[in-house]
Amino acid sequence: WTLDAYDAVVYDKRKRSKTVNPFEKPVKTYPRVVRGGSWKDSSDKIRSASRGYSEKRWKMRDPQIPKSKWWHTDAAFVGFRIVRPYITPSPREQQIYWKEKHTN
To answer: What does the DSSP assignment read for 58-103?
Structure first.
């Protein structure tokens, strides 16, 4: 599970050209990109290029109000991948990725 919004049309466009910094800024909570496959997938889905998308039903049993942005109670097969850049982004770059307000 990632912060990127899932949009199948965007993936088709990216196949035709070189992509630099392919972050798709979300405008709503669902769907988000799920990458890499999981223990419940077939072997052809367990690879870094594998893509899927999140669903609202993954949080149905979350008892918190409001529901957690990070905990998918009904999707134990999904984890959140944390990637740290080697060089810390400038404050301006950080604003682009980390200061967004997202709805649940």
So the answer is: GGTT--SSSPPSS--TT-TT--------SSPPPHHHHHHHHS----
